[in-house]
Amino acid sequence: MDNPILWTLISVQVFMGAFDTLVHHEGTERLAWRPSQKQELRLHGVRNFFYMVIFLCFAWFEPRGVFTVILAGILTVEVLITLWDFVEEDLTRKLPGTERINHTLLALNYGAILALAAPYLWDWAFLPSAMIPVSYGWWSVMATASAIGVGLFSARDLLAASRSDRLHRGDSATLVAGLKPRQHVLVTGGTGFIGARLVEALVGAGHHVTVLTRDLRHADDLAHPVRLISRLEQIHDDDHFDAIVNLAGEPIANGFWTARKRRRIVASRVDMTKALVALVTRLHHKPACFINGSAVGWYGLRGDAELTEDAGPAPAFTHDICAAWEAAAAPVRDHDVRLVILRIGLVLGVDGGMLAKLLTPFEFGSGGVMGDGRQWMPWIERDDLIRVIAFAMARSDVEGPVNATAPNPVRNENFSRDLAKALHRPLLLRFPGWLLSAALGDLARETMLGGQRVLPAALLRHGFRFDHPHLGPMLARITGSNAAPRAKSRQDEGAPAREY
Questions:
Q1: Count of domains in the chain?
Q2: Which letter does DSSP use for residue 365 in this model?
Q3: Which residues on adjacent β-strands are paired with residue 377?
Q4: For residues 158 and 27, is the Cβ–Cβ distance under 8 A?
Q5: Which of 13, 109, 140, 382 has the most CB atoms at less than 10 Å from its CB?
Q6: Phi, psi of 50 (to 5 degrees)
Q7: Do 82 and 161 have their domain in common?
């Protein structure tokens, strides 16, 4: 089958398939960590296995007779699986426009491949049965590399499908069970990784939730019923809110820290917070509390120093962000509104955030330690953070800065080792600090190579009980590890879990 046009089309198919897998399945959609996509993952696993067989056959053999019939059968089954997959995708998730376009191009290109390959298969089918070794040079090498890639993803997708049932997160309503009934809550950043889970918990518990989002399309996956607004001007002066939770802000780790990016990061937080304070000013019924986001970056880079809420900062851009954000919220106190500043650590969950970006490389054995691995990583499991937010809303004695981190921060080396262990993968790599700094500048120095040893002194003083105080058991649990015991916390020792 020494046909350059046919091999070119196969190469295009490989490229588009890799794009679909890496950008959509692994990137935007993260199918391997969505329990709802169990059947889709099975279909992908079987289809990729067939692709592996097809690529290896085309690369090194010329099938004849009965072997040609078997190959033709595999090609036909692959088409049927692809059609089934299209139906499954439409029934279980909303496909991005780019994925739909890519699927159309894949189908058209695959049809062209079959049309060009059909005459060869027809001729070979009438020859005596045999597998004749052949080689097409670099085309064979390309097909072999593609076979290895789809083979790896086939195994991973089938394993991911088998763990799907262990990824269910339980009833979100229990996370806010300590709140008074039928609270009215305004949430900004409600479509994000943290905000969406908070909205789900509040709605599930029967509270009235208003979500401010600049793009209503981002709210398609929110729990309902929820009130959606795109501007604070849509809120009437007579509207009633018991609490405002402000989580809005441009992500800090999704691009280089250029001067323009730095301004956007700060402005996205400060402008929204000032607008919310202006809203409180005109509301006839003031909310009881205003919960404002911040981050442990407020403390700057402090080495091994233990940092409670009383600790001071060190110079850093992350401190500048948080200081400006917290200062913008301070005037809300002038209206007798209780202000809680959540200095949030690394929020861990398989649905998004930093951990989501690490799962795929660690699953394929390419995760590693950052720099010397000695930097501290203050972390908190996402559902524990939702409980912290509900705790701050419910407790009138919680006020001012609150470190929203688990009580046991870890060093990067320990974090990497625990994540690799949870995914049953080796930890082999180490990424030099100089390389990360050279590539990403201050972004790497402050968020990857630097850290803070932050402790949740205020939460512990007020009696908050973490469901996930230790990193290793938590990672094993949320990743669906086969050896994932329930993380033991102080509430397992007899204390009630939801009494605020």
A1: 2
A2: T
A3: 410
A4: no
A5: 382
A6: -65, -40
A7: yes
DSSP H helical ranges for 207-340 = 259-282, 317-329
Whether the CB-CB separation of 372 and 414 falls below 8 Å is answered with no
Q: What does the alpha-carbon distance between residue 81 and residue 93 come to, in Å, rounded to a whole number? A: 18
Same domain for 28 and 132: yes
CA dihedral sign, ordered 393, 397, 403, 406: negative
Q: Which long-range contacts does 486-490 make (Cβ < 8 Å, 24+ apart)?
A: 489/465, 490/465, 490/466
Residue 430 corresponds to which tokens in the numbers above?
Answer: 């180490």
**E strand or H helix that includes residue 221:** none
Q: Which of 8, 49, 60, 72 is nearest to 147 (CA)?
A: 49
**Phi, psi angles (nearest 5°) of residue 333:** -65, -25
**Residues contacting residue 450 through CB under 8 Å, at least 6 positions apart:** 301, 316, 375
Same structural domain, 239 and 259: yes
Does residue 317 contact residue 298 with C-beta atoms inside 8 Å?
no
pLDDT tens, position by position, 132-169: 999 999 999 999 999 999 999 999 999 999 999 898 88
pTM of the shown model: 0.90
Give residue 434's domain range. Answer: 172-493
Q: Around 356, how many Cα atoms within 13 Å sit in the side-chain half-sphere?
A: 18
With 0-12 CB in 10 A as exposed, 13-18 as middle and 19+ as buried, what is 197?
buried
What are the structure tokens assigned to 20, written together? 């679909």
Residues 96 and 214 in one domain: no
Contact predicate 426/365, CB 8 Å: yes
Q: Which amino acid is at 24?
A: H
Beta bridge partners of 430: 369
Which residue, 246, 298, 247, 248, is CA-closest to 268? 248
Reported as a single tens digit per residue, the pLDDT across 387-434 is 999 999 999 999 999 999 999 999 999 999 999 999 999 999 999 999
- Give the integer Cα–Cα distance in Å for 386 and 341: 14
CA distance 202 to 171: 11
Q: Is 500 within a domain?
A: no
CA distances from 25 to 13, 35, 44, 490 (A): 16, 14, 10, 38
How far apart are the C-alpha atoms of 448 and 454, rounded to whole Å?
16
